[in-house]
Write a structure and sequence with these properties.
about 100 residues; 5 helices; about 70% helix; about 0% strand
């Protein structure tokens, strides 16, 4: 990771969180507006829910561990790749589809 875990206070990333959440909400809205697009809409919803969950955890803990950052980055990469190809959504593992299962 580019910064050490103890150098990742929430406030240093708060502005970026706002921009990213806005972009993700926009992606979800666009997918909801498209006809016959349930897979992409569902993946967008999962991404948004996980993003908000991680943002709130970062805010509460005021740090973001290397382990969680690596796991979360990899999971988001898989989800965004699937969003880019809705057919891939059908192939997501059960764990990636379930936004209640997550790193602590």
């Amino acid at each position: 990771m580019e910064t050490k875990a103890d150098s990742r206070p929430y406030t240093a990333f708060a502005e970026q969180y706002v921009g990213l959440e806005t972009d993700i909400r926009g992606m979800l809205t666009r997918n909801q507006a498209r006809a016959l697009n349930p897979e992409s809409t569902e993946i967008s919803r999962i991404i948004l829910n996980l993003f908000i969950k991680h943002k709130e955890q970062h805010k509460a803990r005021n740090t973001y561990s290397d382990g969680n950052a690596k796991l979360d980055r990899n999971r988001f990469a898989r989800l965004f790749a699937s969003a880019a190809s809705a057919e891939e959504a059908k192939k997501l593992s059960v764990d990636d589809k379930d936004d209640s299962k997550d790193s602590k």
